[in-house]
Amino acid sequence: MLHVDATCEGGGPMLLSGMDAITSTVLWNKKIQTEKADRVVPFLKEIAELYGRPLLVVMDMSKGFENAVREVFGEGMRILICHFHFRRDVGKDLLGKDYDMIRKRLRKHRASSRLRYRLRSFRAAVDENPETLTKLDPESADELTGEERKIMPALAAYSLVQWALDGKSVGDAYGFPFDRPLMNFALRIEEVLRQIEELKKVFAHNDRKHNKPLFKTAVDMRRIVEDKPLHGALDGLKDKIKVFDKLRKAMRLAPPGGGDGLNDDGGDEPIEKIEARVADFSKTVVKNRKMNNVSEYQKMIEQIDKYWSRLFADPVTIDTPNGTISIQPQRTNNIMEKFFRSIHRGHRRRTGNDSMRAKLRAMKANTVLAKNLENRQYMDMLLNGKNSLEKVFAEIEADDVREETCRNPENEERVPPQVKRMIKPENFPGEMVKSLKMMVR
Question: Is 174 within the bounds of a domain?
Answer without folding.
Answer: yes
